[in-house]
């Protein structure tokens, strides 16, 4: 099913500017256009955009997103490298979560301390 840029943005919860930016920096390729030159997105495009957005929201840097998009274009040839890239990103997420848990522990200790002195 074809989607307009506005429909695509709405379905993904992003702005049209984000979609334009992703296309400009090379994360999107092969987007179909109407005879009037307007972009038309397919279900596959939405799926790819959704994954890229997930990776970006989880802290993947743009440079690595570009690399991931390049590997997507390779199809099966890039599968092993895509997997390795995602595994590396997953480890980085784990490290950030661990760090956040430590920081949360300190915040909770401070909350407990303030409660104890104000009682």
UniProtKB/TrEMBL annotation:
What is the name of the protein in this document?
MerR family transcriptional regulator
| UniProt KW keywords | DNA-binding
Q: Which Gene3D superfamilies match?
A: 1.10.1660.10
Q: Which organism is it from?
A: Actinoplanes subglobosus
Instruction: Give the superkingdom in one word.
Output: Bacteria
- Domain (HTH merR-type) spans 1-71
Q: Does the keyword Iron-sulfur apply?
A: no
Supply the Pfam families for this chain.
MerR_1 (PF13411)
Report the InterPro entries cross-referenced here: DNA-bd_dom_put_sf, MerR-type_HTH_dom, MerR_fam
Q: Which CDD domains match?
A: HTH_YyaN (cd01109)
Its taxonomic path starts at: Bacteria, Bacillati, Actinomycetota, Actinomycetes, Micromonosporales
């Amino acid at each position: 099913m074809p989607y307009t840029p506005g429909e695509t943005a709405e379905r993904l919860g992003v702005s049209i500017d984000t979609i334009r930016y992703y296309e400009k920096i090379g994360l999107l390729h092969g987007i179909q256009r109407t005879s009037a030159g307007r972009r038309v997105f397919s279900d596959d495009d939405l799926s790819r955009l959704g994954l890229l957005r997930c990776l970006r929201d989880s802290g993947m840097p743009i440079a690595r997103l570009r690399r991931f998009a390049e590997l997507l274009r390779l199809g099966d040839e890039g599968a092993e490298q895509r997997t390795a890239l995602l595994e590396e990103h997953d480890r980085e997420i784990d490290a950030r979560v661990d760090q956040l848990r430590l920081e949360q522990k300190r915040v909770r200790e401070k909350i407990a301390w303030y409660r104890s002195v104000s009682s």
